[in-house]
Write a structure and sequence with these properties.
It is a single chain. The chain has 10 helices and 21 strands. It is an alpha/beta fold and about 475 residues long. The protein has 3 domains: about 60 residues, OB fold (Dihydrolipoamide Acetyltransferase, E2P) (Beta Barrel), CATH 2.40.50; about 140 residues, OB fold (Dihydrolipoamide Acetyltransferase, E2P); about 190 residues, Vaccinia Virus protein VP39 (Rossmann fold). A hairpin with a 2-residue loop joins strand 6 and strand 7. Helix 7 packs parallel to helix 9. Bound molecules: S-adenosylmethionine.
Length: about 475
């Protein structure tokens, strides 16, 4: 066998990235866009000889699966955004549950029940777009990076976003090309427009143009066009002249800084280009409701949210009476959290701590026990002494929680009764963390389909403290 050779494969499974898996002459082959049950012809692109693993591209479907569906998007297969759109949506949910089962069994030895994946509306679910600019046939275009590359596949719409994106792309490209602007080229590091970042929440639009510079000529024309299409919108420029994969620059130039806010589950929250929001409104609400159900917030409950972002989840629970301790590492997010609680009249219900969960969680508990005084320790000690129940929520980024956080929670479980709820966006780090949380047993696992047509899944795990010996 060698690269460029075409082979015929029976596809027997789907991999973690949504690729079809087939066996050939003792090798395991990964073939993107092939489905289990299919017979396909695939061209070998790469062989890992020592590992008996190969990669191939789909050339022909000899016998299709009954679960293969027609995709509405004519960029599917070229744009790197979706890898599962060709699989019937109900089967995507089954695939995500099965993958989660496999990885939790393999890395955490977990063989218990997993609830069915909570489904989403499969299309137009994203409230945020981040599209790179590029030059196509001498004109500015936006689109998505082709799978595994930094080459632009130009797009005028995307089925994962509502029609608002189509309108925004049109206005932006008309403006850029009428003004004769240029798109940034990663190789030469020349050209102005880098990314169009847009958040469309509750009918309000916030656009940020990330640029290799500090100004855009004729920007007022863009403001007028935007305002006509998206009344009350906000516009920022974000200079980013660095040769980096980080999209946003560190600063914002307000061009039309209309203050934006939305009401989410009874909490009024400001939206700015740096704020983190779950990207699927429907699933965010289902997931938050599920976590809130587990926490059962009331004045008799203390919630510690260890990766709190701007503290939205805690704010919803504080509104329902809970006493909240938010821990968040990004300074700006903590400033936003303080404003959020103030604006919603719940500042007395919460303390927003800025710091690393690995350190702050330990400090909150140990300093409280050793009688050290800080505002948060005094409050925490008071609440614990009055017999309130403690619920700890972890919602870390993709890299999961650190070993220190797991160790702190294991130690804490010997001293304090509490429940633990972990929201994960990465099954691999989740499975490692379940194994590290050795003083806890899993009481329920529910996956949520935050990202239809991609292999990603959001998972909520509830833990109980194992019986102490
Ligand atoms: C997945 S977001 C969750 C945000 C929030 N729970 C929500 O639903 O909007 C993860 C958050 O953890 C923060 N973070 C990352 N590493 C952290 C750490 N070591 N300690 C505390 N917060 C951290 C990030 O800045 C981010 O706001």
């Amino acid at each position: 066998m060698q690269p460029n050779q075409t082979i015929e494969l029976n596809i027997i499974d789907l991999g973690m990235e949504g690729e079809g898996i087939g066996k050939y002459e003792g090798y395991t082959f990964f073939v993107p866009y092939a489905l289990p049950g299919e017979v396909v012809k695939a061209k070998i692109t790469h062989l890992k000889k020592g590992k008996n693993v190969g990669y191939a591209t789909l050339k022909e479907i000899v016998a299709p699966s009954n679960n293969r569906v027609q995709t509405p998007c004519n960029r599917f297969g070229r744009c790197g955004g979706c890898t599962l759109m060709h699989l019937d949506y109900s089967k995507q949910l089954e695939y995500k549950k099965k993958n989660l089962q496999t990885i939790l069994r393999k890395n955490a030895g977990y063989v218990g029940e997993i609830n069915d994946v909570v489904p989403s509306t499969p299309f137009a679910y994203r409230n945020k777009a981040q599209l790179p600019f590029g030059m196509v046939n001498g004109k500015v275009a936006v689109g998505f990076y082709g799978s595994g590359t930094h080459k632009i596949v130009s797009s005028t719409k995307c089925f994962l976003h509502g029609e608002w994106l189509e309108r925004l792309i049109k206005i932006t490209l008309d403006f850029a090309n009428d003004e004769g602007l240029t798109a940034y080229d990663e190789n030469t590091r020349k050209g102005l427009l880098r990314h169009m970042v847009a958040r469309y929440l509750g009918g309000k639009m916030v656009v940020t143009l990330v640029i290799n510079g500090t100004t855009i000529k004729g920007i007022n024309r863009y403001v007028s066009a935007l305002e006509q299409e998206f009344e009350g919108c906000a516009l920022y420029l974000s200079p980013n002249t660095k040769d980096t994969n980080v999209i946003m620059g560190n600063t914002l130039i307000p061009i039309k800084p209309t203050p934006q806010s939305v009401e989410i589950m009874g909490v009024n929250i400001g939206v700015n280009p740096f704020s983190f929001f779950q990207i699927n409104d429907e699933i965010r609400e289902k997931l938050y409701n599920y976590v809130i159900d587990k926490v059962a917030p009331s004045k008799d409950v203390i919630v510690v949210d260890a990766y709190a972002g701007v503290g939205l989840l805690g704010a919803i629970m504080a509104k329902r009476g809970a006493n909240v301790f938010n821990i968040e590492i990004v300074k700006e997010a903590v400033v936003d959290a303080n404003n959020l609680y103030e604006k919603n009249g719940i500042q007395d219900k919460a303390i927003n701590v800025c710091g690393d969960a690995s350190i702050e969680l330990k400090k909150l508990v140990e300093d409280t026990q050793s009688g050290k005084t800080s505002a948060q320790n005094v409050k925490f000690a008071e609440l614990i002494a009055s017999g309130k129940k403690v619920k700890i929520v972890l919602d870390p980024p993709r890299k999961g929680i650190s070993k220190e956080v797991a160790d702190t929670l294991n130690e804490l479980s010997n001293k304090l009764d509490f429940e633990l709820i972990y929201v994960s966006c990465n099954p691999a780090t989740l499975s490692r963390d379940i194994a590290n949380l050795s003083s806890f047993s899993v009481s329920e696992i529910t996956p949520f389909d935050m990202f239809p047509h991609t292999p990603h899944v959001e998972t909520v795990v509830s833990f109980e403290i194992k019986e102490r010996l």
